Structure formats: C-alpha cells, structure tokens
Sequence to fold (306 residues):
Amino acid sequence: MVFHVPVLLKETSDLLLTNLSGTYFDGTLGFGGHTSFFLNQLNKNAKVIATDKDVAAFNHCEEKFSGDERITIYNSSFTEIKNISLMENVIGYDGIFADLGVSSFQFDNKEAGFTYREEADLDLRMNKSVGEPAFKFINQAEANEIADVIYKYGEEKNSRRIARNIITEREIKFIKTTTQLKEIIQKVVPVKNLNKTLSRVFQALRIYVNNELEELKLFLEKSVELLNEGGRIVILSYHSLEDRIVKDFFKHASLKCVCPPEMPICTCDKKSTLNIITRKPIIAGESEVKSNPRARSAKLRVAQKI
Ligand SMILES: C[S@@+](CC[C@H](N)C(=O)[O-])C[C@H]1O[C@@H](n2cnc3c(N)ncnc32)[C@H](O)[C@@H]1O
Fold:
C-alpha cells in the first residue's frame, strides 16, 4: 500500500544534506518517504531526529525504521524541537526540514475525518489528544468567529452565509459528522462551486483546530536558533498562507537592519541570521505533477544559517 508519495524528493535532499555525517531534524515525518531517502544517502554516523503529531504515522515509522539506530522518532509537534533536542543532547543541526500539512494517508483515511468525501466524526485534529475537535468549535462558536475562520484560512467568499446556516442547523440538531457539514454547505452554495467550497471549508477548519499557522511560526523561530553555522532550513508548503509565513520569516531573518528608511544611521541592532538560498520557491515539474497531483501546489523554500 502506498501511504504517501513524497514531493520534490531529490530537490529537497540535495538542498538539505550539506554534511553526510551531520545531524538532521524532520519535523513532519509522515510515512517516512523523505527521511528514508535522506537516510539512504547519509553516512553511518549521521543522526536524524523526527517528529509527527499523528499517532498512526508515528507507529508506522517506528516499525519502518526499527533497524536503523541513526533515527529517533517522537509522537509530538515539531514545536517541541528545543525540548527534544535537549533530551537528545543535540546542540545544533546541519539541516531542519518540514513538509507541511497532512499526508495522503490522513486525507484518504476514512476514520480521520479530514475529507468531506467520507462519513466520519468532524474531528480534523492530527493529534486527537490535543485541542478540540472541529465539531465542538462549530457547535459552540459565534457565527462571526466561524465565518472568520472559514474566510481567513479557507479564503472562501461564502463564509458568512455558510456560518449563518451552521448556526440555524445546529439549533435543530447537534452537528457531529463530515456529512452533516457537507449537507449544510450544500444548502447555501451553488452546485458548480460546491467541491471547491467544501475543500476550502474543511481545510480552514483543519488549519484552525491544529493551530497550524501559529505552530509554523514557532517552529521557524526555534529552528533558526538550533541550526549550526552553514546549516539549512528547508520548508515545503502547500497553502499560500503557509508559504507567506515562510517567505516573510526568511526575509526578515536575512535583513541586517530594520530601521525606518528615514533614519540617518542604524540603531536597531538587528543581525542577519539567514541567507536565502531560493529567491523564488522551487516548484514541481510537469511530470511530477502528472504522477502526483499533490505536488501541484508545493512550494519549496530554503535558507542557510549565517
Ligand atoms: C505532508 S505529510 C509528511 C510526509 C512525509 N514527508 C513523507 O514523505 O512521508 C505531513 C505530516 O506532518 C504531520 N504534521 C503536521 N503538522 C505537524 C506538527 N506541527 N508537528 C508534527 N507533525 C506535524 C502530519 O501529521 C503529517 O503526517
């Protein structure tokens, strides 16, 4: 069974592995596609620390990599990178990698409730023991809070109408499943836009319940501190808001000064901590997109610690 086809595999590996005996961090191990490729190239004395929030991904990889002493895996958020590194006696990394979002396995897995195509509890959390399921949010929040989440994280223009209908329907019956939400949206959105709207709403709720954008910002901040000089941070994103966060973070970290232009001399004491390696993001070629549609929205950005 193919759990997940890794995106931009060779490009990622070529840009990440600058020292074949180095120490690396994969924050989003998933089904180990990228990391298995990295390990095949790394020397015997290299080390990889990896995290995944999802217990199914963690269990799969514990088994998959059980014979390889170079890798240690945690069922945890990548925001724990500092604590985990302390526990592992790692002072600095030669490369830190994240391949954001959800895996194809999570998406296609009926019980996970990530897709409107399957009947399941409307949960949408990658780690079911952290935070609250999406159904709790849509049954308790005010209409404007629901609309804001759908608009901000899904860029869905019918957000207000959808939120109002959620409020109406939840007074009749508690909303618990993916199918119930799909039917509520179906009532207020034209058929021709339905699939796109459903994808956007489910994606928005997923980003919200997993706190994805805030976690990404925290991860980037902590990662820069933990990179060795010359070490690289390599991020693959699939959503414009994620890519914007990575781009802005790299840009800000690369600046030597953030004083307003009218200041005659620099007083900000800002130091540049990263060199941007990819001025424009690397994207997948036509043949990769053809064989793996998930690659279509991928953007790869890389920066190097100064
Ligand atoms: C796109 S998949 C990674 C696929 C992986 N590169 C591979 O080749 O198999 C993203 C994975 O990241 C995990 N994930 C997302 N956000 C996370 C976070 N904040 N901390 C840890 N894992 C996270 C998801 O559970 C999912 O398994």
User: Anything to note?
Assistant: Residues 128-209 form a domain with the DNA polymerase; domain 1 fold (CATH 1.10.150.170).
